[in-house]
Amino acid sequence: MELRQFHHFALVVADVDASTRWYGDVLGFALERRFGFAEAGVEIAHVVSTAGIRLELIQQTGSAPSPDVGQDAFGALRTQGAKHVGLLVDDADAALAELRAKGVEVVHEVTTVEPAGVRNFWVRDNSGNLIEFNEWLA
C-alpha cells in the first residue's frame, strides 16, 4: 500500500457552525462540504486551508469536553489519544501576534524547541482543542 497524502484530522467540537466560522475567521479555512447523520445526532463540516490542510469538525449530540480541556498542553500528554493539531508557519512571532489580535486564547508563548528543530506556540480553538504552530529553525 502506498499512501498518497494526508486527507484530514478530525476534531470533535461543541458547535459545528461556530467552529466552522472560527476556523474561517481566525485561520482562513474555507468550508469544503457539510453533511450529517441525523439518526446518529452527528453534524460534520470539512474545512480546508489554502495550502490544502483539511480538518473534519464533528458535532455529536451528547458529547462532552475532553478531560484535557483546561490542562496545559503537556499535562494533556498524560492520557493517550490524539492531543493537538500541528501547523507550520513561516514566522511564529508574527502568527502569534495575529492570533492574539483576533482574541485567540494563547496556551504557551513562542518557545524554541531545539530537539524538534522548531520554534512553536500553542493556542486553543473555540471548543478548547489545542493547536500547535511551528516555525522551522534555520
Describe the structure.
Helices cover 16% and strands 39% of the residues. With 138 residues, the chain is α/β, with parallel strands linked by helices. A four-stranded mixed sheet has the order 1-4-3-2, covered by helices on one side. The chain has a four-stranded mixed sheet with strand order 5-8-7-6, with helices on one face. The longest helix has 12 residues, at 16-27. It is globular. The termini are far apart. The mean pLDDT is 93.
Question: What is the compact description of this entry?
Answer:
The chain has helices spanning 16-27, 92-101, and strands spanning 9-12, 30-37, 42-48, 54-60, 84-88, 105-113, 118-124, 130-136. It is α/β, with parallel strands linked by helices and 138 residues long. Strand 2 (30-37) and strand 3 (42-48) form a beta hairpin.
Main traits of this protein?
alpha/beta; 8 strands; 138 residues; 4-stranded mixed sheet
Task: Describe the secondary structure blueprint for this structure.
Blueprint: E1 9-12, H1 16-27, E2 30-37, E3 42-48, E4 54-60, E5 84-88, H2 92-101, E6 105-113, E7 118-124, E8 130-136
Parallel strand pairs: 1-4, 5-8
Antiparallel strand pairs: 2-3, 3-4, 6-7, 7-8
